[in-house]
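Q: Sequence in, structure out?
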Amino acid sequence: MIPLCDKKRIGGFPFVVVFLIVFNTIVFLSTYYNLQYYINLFGFSSEKLFDGQFFSVFTAMFLHGSFWHLIANMWFLWVFGDNLEARLGHLKFLAFYLLCGLGAGVVYALAMSDPKAAVIGASGAISGVLGGYLVLFPRNKIRAVLMTLPAVVYIFLWFVYQLFSAMAIDTSIAYWGHLGGFVSGIFFINFFKKR
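A: Exactly. Output:
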């Protein structure tokens, strides 16, 4: 169920979404040759959080482990981020995005049994974008590879997959971070949306 587009685009050019995609791509291309070094330096873990290296929750958002990791994250940001940016405004959208990434990091840190397990990627913040999108655009149609679904149905199915994966799969994918970002997005969107 890879999303292709939402069928009701609003607003002007999504400057922040494009900036985030370009910046993440530049960081990926700059760090990929020696990724483990940069994960050790800028990746996020509960050990770093509780040791006061708070900045790592933000720096980790801009590191990605593979081309597929980068492309999948940036594609979801492109599909769901433009309408959210149009509704919130550029700066509020950026603040919302970063706050969702923070929420994702805190939940990940609390959920992981290994305090040294580092996580990287924008997935938590982008999961927050999905949470915000669900609140503001539940009736928008999401065109996927095999079908078109209302956003509320598409995102619900995405959420169920994340939840079951978090509980059932021992993996390097930070599903608890995705869930933390998603819930953060649902919570924080009400403080950012224009009245």
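The beta strands are 3-6, 141-144, 148-150.
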